[in-house]
Amino acid sequence: MPPKAVVLLSGGLDSFTAAAIARSEGFGIYGLTVDYGQRHAVEILAARRVAQALGAMAHRVIPIDLASFGGSALVGDGSVPKDRTLDDQSIPVTYVPARNTVFLALALAWAETIAACDIFLGVNALDYSGYPDCRPEFIEAFERLANLATKAGVEGARFKIHVPLVTLSKAEIIRLGTGLSLDYALTHSCYDPGSDGTPCGRCDSCRLRAKGFDEAGVADPLLKRF
Fold this sequence. Notes:
Helix content is 35%, strand content 11%. The protein has 226 residues and is α/β, with parallel strands linked by helices. The protein has a single domain, classed as Rossmann fold (3-Layer(aba) Sandwich).
């Protein structure tokens, strides 16, 4: 049996690429997707497609109602901003309070349950829309917490939070994934899609994706579906 890794799968191209890297390193993939009340729930379907394409050993979709707290345009509290300047590093209204902290806590709980010490997350600190929970400092702090706050950690296990994309631009991520033969048509990135999943093309996530594919010199296969 290969070593186990819990991988947070959002259905986006970053988490798909991070999961593929985990697989290429010999890990068996245990995909975890959080249905947190996001307005763009079409990403759950994308996460299922991605998990299947990766040959995941298991894939769990966990409902956690962060929408009941509000505080973010991604859970319907206000509108998703369009046409923002891409180099604006202010924290946008699409930030979901403590989202990655919640997600990593869930991943840690599953990892400890299945005796896995490795968790993969597809954050990157370059094209990250200003979210504070995508920074290396946060990942390092959570890894310390994981090893302090668990029975497995106290008994000698060493949890590792892998963020293989953290220093890469979106273009570099796309080139890497293309080299791993990933089909990015399976993914979803838009914060405010149409009812049929059509990307809006104007939110931060759509624009960062388009910029990444353009700079990578690769056509976005997702656009062929619409």
